[in-house]
Design a protein that fits this description.
It contains eleven helices and three strands; from the N terminus they run H-H-E-H-H-E-E-H-H-H-H-H-H-H. It has 241 residues and is mainly alpha-helical.
């Protein structure tokens, strides 16, 4: 259950880059709580074990334990003993999340800036990919877009979407651009994907992916960039309050 290679631990693997060690327990708690608040971690989700989570975050087990204890006191997670035990998300009710509303608000304000930066950056990636992609890379983009279109379930669709956009980054043939794409994704998702999901957004993304691939195939860098930025703004950026 505490294997750092298990899928649950891998979903949290990026959090180590955004957690400040000076206040690790509170920041770990904030990120997990924010994931619960936006629905990325629905009720019933089993969190990775303390050892696996600490390894993924590159923090001490005591920091992870302290963070989970804070969340347990809030009533949003529960620990179950014995076979099949672990730490599970137990509540996403507004009343349970209310004590942390201000911190969640701060988290989302910071994230809004990151989402803006991602949209602008992926405009450039798609534009460059349209000029540098190979035929094999174009075929891969077609396959990834088709795969996404068959995954109308939140977690699988979020992962497939990330794979599609990382493939665009790789088609730029610049490892630094690919690394930057991974870095900004890591900061935004904090170890688990927060992007909103609905049937309407899924249908929009399917259409967007196809249009982006068509523009890349045509070598139309301006259109590919415009479509990609618009895609990120319309499907992942929350409306301004």
């Amino acid at each position: 259950m505490n294997d750092p290679n298990d899928p649950g631990a891998q979903e949290f693997s990026g959090l180590g880059d955004v957690v400040s060690l000076t206040s690790a327990p509170q920041q770990i708690a904030d990120h997990i709580l924010s994931g619960i608040a936006v629905g990325a971690l629905p009720v019933g989700t089993m969190l990775p074990g303390e050892r696996a989570l600490a390894a993924a975050l590159q923090v001490s087990r005591s920091s992870v334990r302290a963070a989970l204890e804070r969340l347990e006191r809030l009533g949003v997670v529960e620990r179950r003993r014995g076979r099949g035990g672990g730490t599970f998300v137990s509540s996403a009710e507004p009343a349970a999340l209310a004590p942390m509303a201000e911190r969640i608000g701060e988290f989302h304000a910071e994230r809004r800036n990151l989402l803006d930066a991602r949209a602008v950056f992926h405009n450039t990636l798609a534009a460059v990919a349209a000029l540098r992609r190979t035929d094999d890379e174009l075929e891969q983009l077609h396959r990834l877009a088709a795969t996404y279109s068959e995954l109308a379930e939140a977690a699988a669709a979020r992962t497939a979407d990330a794979q599609f956009h990382f493939a665009i980054a790789r088609a730029c043939h610049n490892p630094e651009l690919a690394r930057m794409a991974i870095d900004i994704d890591t900061k935004i998702n904090a170890g688990f994907r927060h992007d909103p999901f609905s049937a309407e957004l899924f249908d929009r993304a399917v259409h967007d992916h196809a249009a982006i691939v068509d523009a890349i195939a045509a070598g139309d860098s301006l259109e590919a960039g415009r479509l990609c930025e618009e895609h990120f703004r319309s499907t992942t950026t929350p409306p301004s309050s």
